[in-house]
Every structure is written in structure tokens, then in C-alpha cells.
Design a protein that fits this description.
Residues 195-210 have a biased composition (Polar residues). By secondary structure, the chain is α/β, with parallel strands linked by helices. Helix content is 26%, strand content 27%. The protein has one domain (4-206): 3-Layer(aba) Sandwich (Rossmann fold).
């Protein structure tokens, strides 16, 4: 039987960098030019199948980028296994905001969280303000994953989520029972092995050694 795991993923970044569009492209392979701003946060799920047939299910919390919602963010990144911090390659200020989010994650999220820095809107490279070299250098210095994507064309979107899935711990033995997935801040920190079910139907956790 192929292994199945479940992980909590949170998207962070300034408003209008394309977080929701990125998730929509990943989950439904769709793009909407006139997507409204997220209010609070949106919840979606999507699975990735790796080469060894291991299935990784992401529980995705797409957070609002507006400043008035910033105080809610810890509720969503608490106990997250991974985070995608998004910036807009055509707006240098959005990279500075991404750096702020990353510093916050490094201070307050679980120390073993997998963080990916994502430069969105690569289809607008003619208007680029953030060079690949600058962003990659920062990511390397901070030990982050890094990629550029285009939610509009789909370029790089599946690849970054697949790369995150490969970096998550998928081999450790199950331990404590998972709690309350599907709501912000709920459950233990580690991923859930969906193949291992207790009689009550509750999955069990995989300890995180990432």
C-alpha cells in the first residue's frame, strides 16, 4: 500500500502578490484575473503524489495580506509543517514584506517548519524589480527553499509544492494521535500518516525530523 501523509501549509505575504491565485492554480488549475482579496483566510486541500507513490495531502491556509488581518496570522501558522511566503517580482517592497514574514516565522513558528520563498508573477518579467540573484541569495542565507512561479500561466506552481512535499518528513514511525485538523492552530505539529487509523477513525502523527 502506498503511504499517505497530511501536512498543514500556510501562505503568507503582502496583499496582491498572488497568494490566492497561486493556490487556485495549484488546487483547481484555474486563474482569475479579477480575484477579490481574501478576508481573514481561506482553507483548501490538494494532494501531491511523489515518484515512490507516496501521497502528500496539503491542508492549505491562504491568509489575507492586508495589514488589518496581520494579527490573525499566528493562528494559521501555529503548528504549520510548512509555509510558502510569496512576493511579487514586480514590486521590490513585497520582498521586504516577505522578509518580515520570514523573520516572524523564524521567531514564532515551529523551529522545524519548512519555509519556501516564492517569487510570483514571473510572466511579468519585463516589469521585474526583484532579481532572481537577490532573492536566491537571501533564501540561501536563511536556509529557505526558493522558486519563481506564475499563477497566471501555471509555470513552476506544481513544482514548488512538490518540492516542499519532498522536503517534509515521510519516513519516521507514527507517534501521538493527531488532533482537530481542518481548523487553524489545531492538532499536533507533525504530519499525519493517513494509512494508520485508530478504531475511531482518527489518524496518527508522524514525528517531524525536518
Amino acid at each position: 500500500m502506498s503511504k499517505q501523509f497530511q501536512f498543514k501549509l500556510v501562505l503568507l505575504g503582502e496583499s496582491a502578490v498572488g497568494k490566492s491565485s497561486l493556490v487556485l492554480r495549484f488546487v483547481k488549475d484555474q486563474f482569475d484575473d479579477y480575484r477579490e482579496s481574501t478576508i481573514g483566510a481561506a482553507f483548501l486541500t490538494q494532494t501531491v503524489t511523489l515518484e515512490d507513490q507516496t501521497t502528500v495531502k496539503f491542508e492549505i491556509w491562504d491568509t489575507a495580506g492586508q495589514e488589518r488581518y496581520k494579527s490573525l496570522a499566528p493562528m494559521y501558522y501555529r503548528n504549520a509543517n510548512c509555509a510558502v511566503v510569496v512576493y511579487d517580482i514586480t514590486q521590490s517592497a513585497s520582498l521586504e514584506k516577505a522578509r518580515t514574514w520570514i523573520r516572524e516565522l523564524q521567531r514564532q513558528a515551529d523551529p522545524s517548519i519548512v519555509i519556501a520563498l516564492c517569487g510570483n508573477k514571473s510572466d511579468l518579467s519585463a516589469r521585474r524589480q526583484v532579481s532572481q540573484e537577490e532573492a536566491k541569495k537571501y533564501a540561501d542565507e536563511e536556509g529557505l527553499m526558493w522558486a519563481e512561479t506564475s499563477a497566471k500561466t501555471g509555470e513552476g506552481v506544481t513544482e514548488i509544492f512538490t518540492a516542499i512535499a519532498k522536503k517534509l518528513p515521510l519516513t519516521a514511525p507514527p507517534s501521538a494521535r493527531a488532533g482537530g485538523s481542518g481548523r487553524p492552530g489545531a492538532g499536533a505539529r507533525s504530519g499525519v500518516d493517513l494509512n494508520k487509523q485508530t478504531p475511531g477513525g482518527q489518524g496518527q502523527n508522524e514525528p517531524c525530523n525536518c
